[in-house]
Amino acid sequence: MKKLFSILLALAMTVSLTVPAFADEPDYTTGTPWPCIDLDGVVTEETTAELKDNFALAVNKDKILALEIPEGYSRAGTSVDLAIQAAEDLKNMFLGDAPEGHDARLAYDYFQLLMDWDSRNAVGVAPLKAQTEQVEAIGSVEELSAYLSATPPEDQLSAVWMCDSGEDLMDSNHRIMIVADAELLLGDSAEYAALTPYGEIGKQAITELAEKMLLKLGYSEDEAAQKIDNCFAFETMLAPAIYTSEEQQRPDYYGRILNYVGLDDLKQMQGSLPVLESFANMGYPEAEAYLVLNPAGLEKLNVLYTEENLPLLKDYIIVHGVFSAAENLDRECYEWRNAFRNAVIGATGMLDDATVFSSEVSEKLKWPTAEMYTATYLKQEDKDRIAAMIDEIMEAYHGIIEEADFLSDETRAKAIEKLDSITPNVLYPDSWEKYSCEELNFAGPEDGGTLWEANRRIARYMRDESVKEYSEPVDKEEWGDTPQTVNCFYNPLNNSLYILGAYAQGGMYNSEMSDEELLAKLGTVIGHEVSHAFDSKGAQFDKDGNMANWWTVEDQAAFLERNQKMVDYYNAMHPWEGQDFYGSIMTGEAGADMAGVKVVLRIAAGMEDFDYDAFFRAYADKWLGKDTLQMAYIRINDVHPMLYLRTNCTLQQFDEFLDFYGITEGDGMYLAPADRVIIW
Prior knowledge:
Layout: H1 4-8, H2 15-18, H3 55-66, E1 75-77, H4 78-94, H5 102-115, H6 117-123, H7 126-136, H8 141-150, E2 162-168, E3 171-180, H9 197-216, H10 221-238, H11 245-249, H12 253-257, E4 260-262, H13 263-270, H14 275-282, E5 289-292, H15 295-304, H16 310-325, H17 331-345, H18 353-364, H19 366-377, H20 380-402, H21 409-421, E6 423-427, H22 451-470, E7 488-491, E8 496-500, H23 515-531, H24 553-571, H25 587-605, H26 612-622, E9 625-627, H27 629-636, H28 643-651, H29 655-660
Parallel strand pairs: 3-5, 6-8
Antiparallel strand pairs: 1-9, 2-3, 4-5, 7-8
Helix pairs in contact: 4-18, 5-18, 5-19, 7-16, 9-10, 9-16, 9-17, 10-16, 18-19, 20-21, 20-23, 20-25, 23-25, 23-26, 25-28
């Protein structure tokens, strides 16, 4: 939980045989206006595929039929191939000899600790049992407050609310201390009001894992069941005061969470909760201002923080603690955690230990791993080539803003100013000095170290770093994610885009690609990320990374009207009969997809003998994928449209596409000019 706003800004089975049976299970082939071809089992040899009716299906049908979801994964396709390659690269890196240098050796030793099953099995659950016994010994709310405010955070089973610091949205040059809601086992507070089919899968899997862990810690079956019931009962009481996932992903969420309070105000708001004491326990000083993301949640927690509810509060802490600890304990707990993961995402089997643990090192010790990965796999010539490509796309994007007929000259000038201020970050940082972990140390397996103790030291180090950074100006040149991450993103808080090294690989970028394929794959991604500076969320931030309104009233109204048209467009679609999409959360990513293609088509228009067929087919291949049903449910609730929609919905906005293939009214891919929803 090093950066709360990194969360804010920013979560092999066939359908017929492996999906848990639901009452009145739907016919998954009944999607409109197109069937959900991403879902495993929907596309068969008999499925008709006409290019003018369903471009994604027509181009990718044979590839979809040939795709097999790998063991240990919940999906397959172009982006998954990148993830598999990155995992393989990381594994090979850690399976080599011990590296030189303090930071690299940290990452290597952590990998060895993860792989050391003799030590992990010998330690077993003893450290976790000691933590649960400490919570069990709490006899009053006063003692609970002492536990939450005096026990080092790395030694607490779990928190009942979250405290941290992060960039201030209104003044992104500085950080502010943040109070956030407690975590819910089901993730989405809406699940506690009406459990969805996917929620049922998750609740069952959570219950099974928690029960096994509690039994292993020595609780009886009745005691374990009661603790799990108590945890869910507490969360059910708390959930109505916590924003739903849909609310958290809507563009207006930023405005909802900007609740600045002074020190005296927070003292009053915290009531009997030791919120300020928890900040002090972490090492933070008192401040003049704090950010309470959800005052209603804090108020509700105060109401529930009573002697009567003490058993529920304690069991909430215990169940969350044992649930999160499972993957880092002995082999039995690790395998239970894998079974939970498989149930939730629809995977089967297990990835080999080295693959899983190399990725875990990359998450836990991200920057030591980043420097090793960069030195091993990334090249300066690719960095230079992609940087030149970004420059070309940024220049072409000027035309999109200049031609936006809903902008006044005043707003247009501000948009151009913001565009020209965007900082591109390509593949890897130019310097590693600021990412050093010299002050972090823990014993490796050769020196008798244990995984549990290493995790404690890493958690303490990360907390101390957050406290240290709090009082310093934000370094806006510091990268927000690592080169080994299979992703690209735009950060509104420093007005920067990032094309990360592990994403610009294989089927997304390589030196053998034609111009058409390169533009369709990485080119549209770059355009997509640039567009996030002007989407329904990014447009709320100015060129300096501060949340500030640079729009005229009329222009903002026109912009919001265009966004609402896109919301209605996606709300009218269904992956299968009876299942809705949530257009309210999709405008940013869907709009960025469309703007990414639009800017690349501007470049293509100036290229001699450009092969539009190769371009559009490569674009469809970029979004090739196959999901388990569980993963399909996750995608339905995601801000990104499902993959087949990212092809079809995007391409049907453009005359270049419709005209090239002769698509006209009556064809499934046709969209009349008046019905098109492209925002930029």
